Amino acid sequence: MDLDAAAKAVQQLLVALGEDPTSDHLQRTPERVAKAFQEMLTPADVDPTTFPNDEGYDELVVVRDIPFHSLCEHHLLPFVGKAHLAYLPKDRIVGLSKLARVVEHFSRALQVQERMTQQIAAWLEERLAPRGVGVVLEAEHMCMRLRGARVPGTMTVTSALRGTLRDDARTRGEFLDLVR
After folding, report:
1. Is the pTM of this model over 0.90?
2. Is 141 tagged catalytic?
3. 36-89 per-position pLDDT tens digit
4. Would you call 69 a catalytic residue per the annotation?
5. CB under 8 Å to 46, separation ≥6 — which residues?
6. Bridge partner residues of 156 (DSSP)
7. Which is the catalytic residue, given 31, 75, 105, 138?
8. ∠ at Cα 158 (156, 162), nearest 5°?
9. Active-site hit among 38, 39, 73, 114
């Protein structure tokens, strides 16, 4: 990310909005905004620590209520919510903290919730090769709360189900019951 160019763009935006970027209150705002966007849009690498499933665990592994925030690519406003992830192990299991890290990884981009849900599911499917994957994201979008429809508290829920979690109604139902 080009921090200098981003700061200059923020300065131009302030001028376009009728503000004086040289005032005492706004002098460092362009740099602060540029650094904030850099922080929000720089994903950390995820190195999946997996282990052999020596015990033959064959039930759902669910991690729910993983907090996340991202930026709507249409308005550059945040959406904030919780992710619920599950997988049905086959030959490998994953370090649980990696599930939270994969959510953070995909949230650190200009995003839409639908794509982010699919990206997380694809990552889990590709890296773990499990019998099934389930991802549910629920989030409040500031572009709906603060502008447009102005409906605070409205939650958007997206899901991606793969393998057994998609094909087997009982397993799908168990996952959805566990994340409610």
Report:
1. yes
2. yes
3. 999 999 998 998 889 999 999 999 999 999 999 999 999 999 999 999 999 999
4. no
5. 98, 101, 102, 105, 123
6. 139
7. 75
8. 170
9. 73
How many CB atoms sit inside 10 A of residue 17's CB? 8
- Catalytic one of 69, 104, 125, 143: 143
pLDDT at residue 150, rounded to an integer:
94
75 is catalytic: yes
- Domains of the chain are 3-40 (no CATH), 50-179 (3.30.1130.10)
Q: How many angstroms separate the Cα of 91 from the Cα of each of 13, 96, 123?
A: 53, 16, 16
Name which of 155, 170, 168, 143 is nearest 84 in CA terms.
155
Q: Which two tokens stand for residue 30?
A: 């362009």
H or E element at residue 6: helix 3-16
As to burial, measured by CB atoms within 10 angstroms (0-12 exposed, 13-18 middle, 19+ buried), residue 100 is: middle
In the annotation, is 74 catalytic?
yes
